[in-house]
Amino acid sequence: MAGGLALEGLRLEAGGRVLVDGVSLALRRGEVLGLVGTSGGGKSLTALALLGLLPAGVRRAAGVLRLDGAVLDAAGQAALRGRRIGFVQQAPRGGFNPLVSIGRHFRETLACDGLRGGAATARAESLLREVGFAEPAALLGLYPSQLSGGMLQRAMLALALARDPGFLLVDEPTTDLDLIVQAQILGLLERLVARRGLGLLLVTHDLSVVARLAGRVAVMQAGRVVEEQPVHDFFDAPRHPHSQNLLATHFALYGEAAPA
Ligand SMILES: Nc1ncnc2c1ncn2[C@@H]1O[C@H](COP(=O)(O)OP(=O)(O)OP(=O)(O)O)[C@@H](O)[C@H]1O
């Protein structure tokens, strides 16, 4: 494809075991792609491969990553990380250093683009305001342990946006949050996509999140993408048995009938 971020023929292996195989995904700016499937299907590893951040012991045996048509090598991927592609990992508390204030997290990230002193503080405050903090100045002096899970998730989003990326990869954004905070985070993501024209890859096992935000859905099972559809077609007429099972489980959980 010409514009956007594209992964073609990804294969990941660990100790001779194939974890992900033949995975191709495309993400355009301004669109939300939901990557769903049961645990262990390969969603998180696929997102990490997009960032060039594979865990130790996992290697990319095949696959090409393109940005706006141009193939990226490992150095190109490292250069884009944070700058063109933001990342919000699962469980935001683990993404912060507990010994470092929220302000310093921002200062270190913003220094990558040469922003320091008052300019960095003003930018950090503006980013925190964008994700819904009414008094961002007070937040900068706090430590991660002083923030709730929902506040940390919003602060993590603000940090991921600090370098103005065109794409955002978000892994399980609502896990461990109460329902009200979940709804706030989803509303926030929706606004950020619309306002910034972000391409958002939303990794989740929660089909309600997909129904709320995604325009397209890709379903992974045992390391492969078994189906990809516009979200309405996916909910109306899932093609693959794994997708049908996911939907049946989802509707059983929420006490609704599956579409005929
Ligand atoms: N560091 C690793 N070394 C070896 N195997 C791994 C590693 N990380 C993940 N795997 C394996 O790769 C497969 C895909 O894992 P992955 O975490 O991508 O799945 P997932 O779909 O994101 O699941 P979840 O929803 O539980 O996060 C699983 O079989 C997992 O056990």
Structural class label: alpha/beta
Report the CATH C-level class of the largest domain: Alpha Beta
Proportion of residues in helical segments: 25-40%
Work out the helix count: 10
Q: Major β-sheet, in short?
A: 6 strands, mixed
> Going across the major beta sheet, what is the strand order?
6-7-8-3-9-10
Radius of gyration: 19 Å
List the helices and strands in order.
EEEHEEHEHHHHEHEHEEHH
CATH topology term of the largest domain: Rossmann fold
Strand proportion, as a percent range, falls in: 25-35%
Bound molecules: adenosine-5'-triphosphate
In the CATH hierarchy, the architecture of the largest domain is 3-Layer(aba) Sandwich
The domain tally reads 2
Instruction: State the fourth-level CATH superfamily of the largest domain.
Output: P-loop containing nucleotide triphosphate hydrolases
On the 0 to 100 scale, the average pLDDT is 92
Kindly report how far apart the N and C termini lie: 35 Å
* Shape estimate: globular
- Runs in which pLDDT lies below 50 for 5 or more consecutive residues are none
Kindly state the number of beta strands. 10
Protein name: Nickel import ATP-binding protein NikD
Organism: Teichococcus rhizosphaerae
Subcellular location: Cell inner membrane
Pfam family, one: ABC_tran
What does the model show?
- Helix 3 crosses helix 4 and helix 4 packs across helix 6.
- The mean pLDDT is 92.
- 39% of the residues lie in helices and 25% in strands.
- It folds into 2 domains: 199 residues, P-loop containing nucleotide triphosphate hydrolases (Rossmann fold, 3-Layer(aba) Sandwich), CATH 3.40.50.300; 43 residues.
- Helix 7 links the parallel strand 7 and strand 8.
- The longest helix has 18 residues.
- The chain is built from 10 helices and 10 strands.
- By secondary structure, the protein is an alpha/beta fold.
- It has a 6-stranded mixed β-sheet, sandwiched between helices. The protein has a 4-stranded antiparallel β-sheet with strand order 2-1-4-5.
- The site of adenosine-5'-triphosphate has 14 residues, from helix 1.
